[in-house]
Amino acid sequence: MADPEPEKAQLSSSLNMSAKKELLSTAMKRTSEWIFSQEIPSDVTVHVGEASFSLHKFPLVSKCGHIRKLVSESTDADLATVELPNCPGGAEAFELAAMFCYGINFEIGTENIAMLRCAAEYLEMTEEYAVGNLVGRTEAYINEVALKSLAGAVSVLHMSQSLLPTAEKVKLVSRCIDAIAFVACKDSHFSMLGRASDIGHHNKGLPSKPIVDWWAEDLTVLRIDIFQRVLVAMMSRGYKHYSLGPVLMLYAQKSLRGLQEVFGKGRKKIEPQQEHEKRVVLETIVSLLPREKNAFDLS
């Protein structure tokens, strides 16, 4: 009997490729609409990954320092093609940045702010080139909106994982981690005060039944190395090591599903990369385990 797994993988790959081509086609169609609305023929084609955008040099060079340099330093006086192979966030992020250059309104939110900030950095969209440029706009949203709530900070941090190293360069990762640690420790402090009256027994001064805090679920979407950095930041702010037990348990339950099938008897076949990732998760969690008794008593 034929193994259905390769067929499923091939089908999934085909569907992903089809969806990708459809998204790129939609992006190029939208840019064509921008050109038509300007009633001026495009004079530059910008290639970002597999997507091509037919645009105008003037709105781009007026706000994008990186593109201005490429145009000015080119030996071709009528440079008609610009390559941006390393734009963070790819075609989706560049499309939004281009819309900003054209003065087209779009909504900024926690789901796109990370790639917008990183794309703006890559394109050098600073105040040096235009007042109220994209770097300043995104920074204002990050500081005044995104990092004001734990959900916002976690969402931005989650999106930043695919935008390294630029997200590290603009300190987006470190700022999100600090904001999460601050909120989590603040919440833990007040919740522990509220629980004090319900705790009848202590083991060497420690609560005998740790409770999973409301924010712990949000952290399970983070990559293990980023998750570890969050916990280290929390402990540096005074979060008690023994309180990590329930948080680690929750993360392990989410990220190590099927572990017994992989490493136990009758091992299930798994790709080397996936096996390595699960090993790293397991080893990291073990290294973070609290040493106090009853740290995992969730009953």
Instruction: Tell me the distance between the termini.
Output: 46 Å
What value does the Rg take, in angstroms?
Answer: 24 Å
- Helicity range: 55-70%
- What is the count of β-strands? 5
Helix count, per DSSP? 14
Biggest pleated sheet: 3 strands, mixed
Uncertain parts: 1-15, 189-211, 295-299
Question: Which term fits the overall shape?
Answer: elongated
Estimate the mean pLDDT confidence: 78
Q: Note the beta-strand portion.
A: 5-15%
> Structural class of the helix and strand makeup?
mainly alpha
Order of helices and strands: HEEHHEHHHHHHEEHHHHH
Q: Widest sheet: strand order?
A: 2-1-3
Q: How would you describe this protein?
A:
There is one protein chain. With about 300 residues, this protein is mainly alpha-helical. It has a three-stranded mixed beta sheet with strand order 2-1-3. Strands 4-5 form a two-stranded antiparallel ribbon. Residues about 1-15, about 190-210 and about 295-299 have low confidence and may be disordered. The chain is built from 14 helices and five strands. The longest helix has about 35 residues, at about 5-40. It has helices at about 5-40, 55-60, 65-75, 90-100, 115-120, 135-145, 150-160, 165-170, 170-195, 215-220, 225-235, 245-255, 260-265, 270-290, and strands at about 45-50, 50-55, 80-85, 200-205, 205. Helix 4 (about 90-100) packs across helix 5 (about 115-120), helix 5 (about 115-120) runs antiparallel to helix 6 (about 135-145) and helix 7 (about 150-160) runs antiparallel to helix 9. The two termini are about 45 Å apart. The relative contact order is 0.07. This is NPH3 domain-containing protein. Pathway: Protein modification; protein ubiquitination. It comes from Cucumis sativus (Cucumber).
